Amino acid sequence: MLKAGFISLGCAKNLVDTEVMLGILAENAIELTTDPSTADILIVNTCSFIKSAKEESITTILNMAEYKTAGQCKTLIIAGCLGQRYKQELLDEMPEADAIIGTGAWHRIMEAVNETLKGNRVVIAGKADTIYDDKMPRIRTTPDYSAYIKIAEGCDNRCTYCVIPMVRGNYRSRTIEDITAEVKRLAARGVKEVNLIAQDTTNYGHDIYGKSRLTDLLRELVKIEELKWVRILYCYPKYFTDELIELMANEPKICKYVDLPLQHADNEVLRRMNRRDTKESVEELLQKIHARIPNVTVRSSFIVGFPGETQEQYQNLRDFVEAQRFDKVGVFTYSREEDTPAFAMENQVTEEVMQERYHDLMSLQCKISEEVNLQLEGATFEVLIEGRDLEQKSVSYGRSYREAPEVDGQIYVENDLDSQPGDFIKVKIVQGFTYDVLGEKIPE
To answer: Model's pTM, two decimal places?
Structure first.
């Protein structure tokens, strides 16, 4: 029996594609392995969002190529965003690769496997117009109690720095019925937390229903008895409605966690980015969110060094972050991507200046995050346990509604001798740090 090994890079949206490809391989009697040295087929699902992601993808491909001599690899396949964006170049310049599969062709993974095993090198890019549905096989790689649910694919926003529409296509939603069927099936198998993802979750449904239907979808999902948490990720501020705010405020199963990538806070920079918001409209939205959703956690991300960003414009961003006191923030330096409008913009900011602004903004946010976590001391949270400390038998760790998987910190729990991954326990916070917090288990 042939064995396949998979490396998935980039975002959770890419991970879902990986999980569906794993399902297709398994349905075709290919054994899956986590040891690349034993794999006959190695597949790297790549990311090409920014320069560092491309570099990581190339490095991983070259590392996996070594198993053609050091292991038993017969075929190396490049899948995902890098494959969609640079398909022919990769085939021409990377003789190590036997096949390139784009984001529009993950469902043709067996075609690539079969062709390469015959000795053929192929490019199968396809149109970026596919999206998985509940009927497709999927082998989840996340813990048994948690799953990502991709509710839509592609993007219509056309931010001037972003390649996503180029590699993922236009926005296309799954139906409410299809998503609900998948979540019901997963919940019946023990999934307690679902994380809804798309390039822009708040725009869900516009393409097939003529208006946003995110709240309608959420109302269906919270009816699923076995589910404990429904978390919404990747929200675009323009489409964050009052109806969504009210639902988040009043529905216990919806995590009071707002993931709102804002990118900047200077109106001129936002205009050049082709963002559809202003500093004032975002401030109004954030004020509403904090006023109507008690104990809400707000996460955002920002880009420093966008072409033409002056010191004054950066200072406007810094002042905004300082004033808003976000619970969690990710900061990125601008990545100059060919074929985007921003690539050709004048006054590109130097790497040195970008790094200065990055470290300055991160330093500010670290201070804010620590202050926010210190204020949690004495508060009680329901915590989803994810693991146990290998050295200290009485310490476990997990997340509350305030922490999304993989991107946020952990809650370390003392005086917990028996909790296992997937358990929900009550925890009192005793000490806050910059990213993580320490708590103690409250006896039942």
So the answer is: 0.93
